Amino acid sequence: MTDRIGIVGTGSYLPERVLTNLELENMLETSDDWIYSRTGIRERRIAEKDECTSDLAREASLKALEMAQMDAKGLELIVMGTITPDTHCPSGANWLQARLAADKAVAFDVTAACSGFIFALSVAQQYLRTGAYNNALVVASEVMSRTVNWEDRESCILWGDGAGAAVLKKGDDGATLVSTHLFSDGASAEGQKLLMPGGGSKTTPISYESVDKGLHHLKLIEASSTLKLAIRSFSDACLEAVGSNGLDISQVDVIIPHQANIRIMKGMAKRLDVPMERVYVTIHKYGNVSGATVPIALDEAVRNGTVRKGSLVLLTAFGGGITWASSLIRW
To answer: Quick one: pLDDT at residue 205?
Structure first.
């Protein structure tokens, strides 16, 4: 039996509605230039009122399954990375399983904020390596627009909605999932700078008081220390991935980072001494879709030919918790 894990299909889905910076100018005291210069974002996608996280995940999953030439009924494992599930119980993965009619699969969520997809990828990878399952659907899906305070101009400008997916299979098919590398630091003060206190056991049940205090909105406290930590974490995760496989960062063809802020991506490229031409960027058109940014960008890069046969691809992410992660893939 081989322990090789292949990625045999990718997929993504973005809601149709586009919210531009120019539209935000009519809602907030802000401007297109102010937003773009600080974040690199021009527009983002927003889910319709009747669209839930599992709805976005279903569309991305069907595209990944189509590329993999698989039927959902053949899925054995579904792992979803999300911080915005349809409900806290059942899990987002359970809702997705029902929508796909993947009745034979075991389904559960992984919560690692913006690092969610790579964490979920690693979980699935380990299950397949042990022989517990032969295939897996890994999804990251977020409806971030439901978590923001649309009067908070520092934070609401950042977030968008969307989903990305990958189908993994044990054996010799597809791109080789070489390795994944996960890190977290729950004691870090930076972990409290991305926080949504409402809904957890610290703030339940929901009350008029908790709503009035804005405890059910995602709070993001930007600071120069967070920016520097993100750049360092992105970079260190990349170096861990290539170094543990006896490679050099110069051998990587495409780096696909979490799309948090263009300044972070440029800082990472500078620290790694990698030209920005090798860093895949989607933040200008999709914004920050939390854990879904990496698989959305990966699918786009695969479908437009940026990632091709023989490409060495490096995924990297940094998120609340704090968490950070990387994955090396040989296409």
So the answer is: 72
Q: Do residues 20 and 41 both lie within one domain?
A: yes
Q: Which of 94, 135, 261, 288 is catalytic?
A: 288
Q: Quick one: 112 and 194 in the same domain? A: no
| Cα–Cα distance measured from residue 144 to residue 153, given in angstroms and rounded to the nearest whole number | 15
Does 288 qualify as catalytic in the annotation? yes
Phi, psi of 22 (to 5 degrees): -65, -35
Domain count, the chain: 2
* 60 shares its domain with 170: yes
What tokens appear for 253 in the block? 């063809």
User: What is the reported pLDDT for 278?
Assistant: 97
- Active-site annotation holder among 52, 94, 258, 261: 258
- pLDDT, residue 215, reads 67
In the prediction, which pLDDT does 221 show? 66
- The domain that holds 134 is classified in CATH as 3.40.47.10
Q: How far apart are CA 61 and CA 64, in angstroms?
A: 5
Mark the ranges of the chain whose per-residue pLDDT is less than 50: 1
Q: Which residues touch 242 (CB under 8 Å, ≥6 apart)?
A: 248, 249, 251, 252, 314, 328
Q: Would the pTM count as exceeding 0.85?
A: yes
Give yes or no for a contact between 43 and 288, defined as CB atoms under 8 angstroms apart. no
pLDDT of residue 169: 97
Give the number of other Cβ atoms within 10 Å of residue 12's Cβ.
Answer: 28
Q: Are both 163 and 28 inside the same structural domain? A: yes
pLDDT single digits (tens) 26-62: 999 899 999 999 999 999 999 999 999 999 999 999 9
**Of 114, 135, 181, 261, which one is the catalytic site residue?**
114
Tokens 């969610």, residue located: 116
Active site residue 114: yes
